Amino acid sequence: METILLIIGAALVALVASAIRVLREYERGVIFQLGRFWSVKGPGLILVIPLIQQIVRVDLRTVVMDVPSQDVISKDNVSVGVNAVIYFRVVDPQRAVINVEDFYAAVSQLAQTTLRSVLGKHDLDEMLQERDRLNQDIQEILDEHTDAWGVKVANVEIKHVDVDESMIRAIAQQAEAERSRRAKIIHAEGEMQAAQKLQDAANILSQNPQAIQLRYLQTLTGIAQDQNSTIVFPMPMDLMGAFEDLIKRSKGGGGTSAG
User: Fold this and answer.
1) Pair 62, 71: CB distance under 8 Å
2) Omega of the bond prior to 43 within 30 degrees of 0, cis?
3) pTM for this entry
4) Is 145 exposed, middle or buried (0-12, 13-18, 19+ CB in 10 A)?
5) Half-sphere exposure (CA, 13 Å, Cβ side) for 143?
6) Contact present, 48 and 42 (Cβ < 8 Å)
7) Which of 33, 46, 58, 224 has the fewest beta carbons under 10 Å from its own?
8) Count of CB atoms within 10 A of residue 127's CB?
9) Which residues, including other chains, have CB under 8 Å from residue 111's CB and lie 6 or more apart?
10) Contact indicator for 123, 77 with CB cutoff of 8 Å
């Protein structure tokens, strides 16, 4: 009799021990009773009735998923390889267990197809220059589809865009041509501004003949500082005009006296 009691007591202790579950702070337990959803429990100490209830543990921590490199053909028909990283976590353990068989694999496959479909709608330049906007578009699409699974996609980051070497050379040539174009435009704008300033200075100097004479003297002073043996003296145009008038008058006077 005592042996039977000991066996029954040991069985009861084993039954109680098997019913005790301890869930960590970042874990939740989805309880099924006779195959039907019962409740979500945790964290801490919980009791699960053996043979009647079953528990499925769900981790609520953020998962960092590396999306394998995908071959993408851009809108301008350039073949590139793109890989990304996704940050997501479970916000509803019930839906994550009931609505999808394996939410981790489901998110991975959805991320790969979404990455190809979204990037295929954009040019190569947009992939290289507008990653923030593309990351936001992919994140919104993934978050919308995974909401039914109780999964929240927090962030998507495109890590690397692999471009063929021939395309890299073409991009370098394009960048060089763009820099040359900008240099020519800047040079032309500088010439235009300099011409405008010279025109303004000429207009100011033409208002006062003494100002022109002072400018001549400043030019001679600058030439003399260089210790040159030859000095080129600028001849005023007004003086040349006076000489021309004298020559014309002398020719006219000579013609009249001869007649």
Assistant:
1) no
2) yes
3) 0.64
4) middle
5) 15
6) no
7) 224
8) 20
9) 65, 67, 84, 86, 138, 142, 156
10) no
Specify whether the CB–CB gap between 122 and 137 falls below 8 A.
Answer: no
Structure tokens at 100: 């999808």
151-163/44-47 β-pairing: unpaired
Q: What are phi and psi of 258, to 5 degrees?
A: -70, -35
The answer to whether 68 and 114 are in contact (CB under 8 A) is: no
pLDDT tens digits, 126-179: 888 888 999 999 999 999 999 999 999 999 999 888 887 766 677 777 778 888
* Residue 35, token pair as written in the block: 């195959």
Number of Cα atoms under 13 Å in the Cβ half of residue 150 = 17
Taking residues 35-62, what's their average pLDDT? 92
Residue 146 in contact with residue 178, Cβ under 8 Å?
no
The three-state secondary structure class of 81 is strand
Give the span between the Cα atoms of 74 and 80, in whole angstroms. Answer: 8
**pLDDT at site 258:** 43
Beta strands (DSSP E) in the chain are 20-23, 27-33, 36-41, 44-47, 53-59, 63-73, 79-90, 151-163
CB contact set of 48 (below 8 Å; sequence gap of 6+): 19, 21, 29, 31, 54, 55
- Contact (Cβ atoms closer than 8 angstroms) between residue 153 and residue 142: yes
Tell me which DSSP letter residue 76 carries: T
DSSP one-letter code for 92: -
Q: Give residues with Cβ within 8 angstroms of 118, minimum separation 6.
A: 134, 137, 138, 141
